[in-house]
Design brief:
alpha+beta; YjbR/MT2646/Rv2570-like; single chain; YjbR protein
């Protein structure tokens, strides 16, 4: 079971990550977001920042669909995210090692190549 503190620790362990001031969490590399808290929108009500749900950059629609269909207990989407390479992740349902993998993958897709080279390579690369 993971939480917002795990997201923060894992994201900040990656090279050149900055945290944007927000009501939840919001992490960027080279000014490009890769993981942030879910701003849930409900009709007729103000949006609610959900720190128990992370929005993750996944790269493309194929990866998004694979995650949504393959692990519906972990991932979901919302109408406002149609056509965007983003999925929502239920933090209480994911293990910390899997969260580390997902955050590192999102970071890799958003970080410039020269920044990516700062991350140790190998089977155990990424924050733990």
């Amino acid at each position: 079971m993971a939480d917002a503190d795990d997201v923060r620790r894992l994201a900040l362990a990656l090279p050149q990550v900055t945290e944007i001031d927000s009501a939840g969490f919001d992490f960027r590399v080279a000014d490009r977001g890769f993981v942030w808290s879910y701003p849930e929108r409900r009709p007729g009500k103000p949006r609610v920042i959900r720190t128990d749900v992370a929005v993750l950059y996944v790269g493309d629609e194929a990866e998004k669909q694979a995650l949504l269909l393959g692990e519906p207990e972990l991932f979901f989407t919302a109408p406002g995210y149609a056509g965007l390479p983003l999925v929502m992740l239920r933090l209480p349902a994911v293990s910390v090692p899997r969260l580390a993998e997902l955050i590192t993958d999102a970071w890799r897709m958003r970080a410039p190549e020269q920044v990516q080279s700062e991350l140790t390579t190998g089977p155990d690369a990424g924050p733990r």
